[in-house]
Amino acid sequence: MKIMFLGAPGAGKGTQAEIASEKFGIPAISTGAIIREAIKTGTPMGVAAKQYTEQGALVPDSVVIGIIKERLEKDDCKNGFILDGFPRTVAQAEALDELGVELDVVVSIEVSDEKIVSRMSGRRVCDKCGASYHVEYKPSKDGKTCDNDGCVLTMRKDDSPEVVLSRLQIYHECTEPLKDFYLAKGKLKLVEGQEEVADTTRLTLEALGGK
Ligand code: AMP
What angle do CA 151, 59, 201 make, to 5 degrees? Predict the structure, then answer.
């Protein structure tokens, strides 16, 4: 099964992608996570991407398409995969078509801009393993350190309120048109993002039902 999660930054795509990955036994692929790792280790791609990502801008299509092409060629993608944060522009979606990838279903998690802004201020991440938490909706066990490795949780640079507003604007301009793109292909399912992660998961699994 090939699934794609669409949604504004902070809508909960990553969380639902991880849950679906466990459930269906296929990898969740986050271009954002791949880019953050490249920035951390200082690869040439990371150095090129840093300025865009930290300002909340999109990394150029050519770079991201290269990343996804390489990732989808890996063995663990043979039985399917879940895309989280790719494609993010119509040009990227067309590139995916050109790679011969046909998605089975695209789930768009719908959350208002107002809720996104308040949610993002509470997001905390582990710089070591990339795990994502929320001070209110998905706290780690002690609220301060990562459940996986005990590292102190931090706020992503691009989660500051002014960067979030610019990321939302980019989402509406560049990414939201993908809803029409996948609606026209008969692939789009809308899920209302809920306060509780488990409630969004229930609706997401319903939307994926029968797939
Ligand atoms: P995310 O973790 O999905 O919120 O992504 C974090 C950042 O990585 C984004 O704000 C972009 O700078 C970059 N990024 C991730 N995926 C893409 C993509 N498909 N196209 C362009 N930039 C991306």
Answer: 55
Half-sphere exposure of 8 (CA within 13 A, CB side): 24
Distance 168 CA to ligand 1 centre (A): 12
Q: Say yes or no: CB of residue 9 within 6 Å of ligand 1.
A: yes
Residue 211 has pLDDT above 70, yes or no: no
Q: First vs last Cα of the chain: how many Å apart?
A: 7
Q: Is 88 a catalytic residue?
A: yes
| Domains of the chain with bracketed CATH | 2-26+79-112+164-207 (3.40.50.300)
Q: What is the pTM of this model?
A: 0.89
Show the tokens assigned to 141: 């066990």
User: The sheet that has 188-192: what strands, in order across it?
Assistant: 28-30, 81-84, 2-7, 105-110, 188-192
pLDDT in tens, 143-202: 999 999 999 999 988 888 888 999 999 999 999 999 999 999 999 999 999 988 899 999
In the chain, % of residues over pLDDT 70: 99
CA 57 from chain centre, in angstroms, equals 15
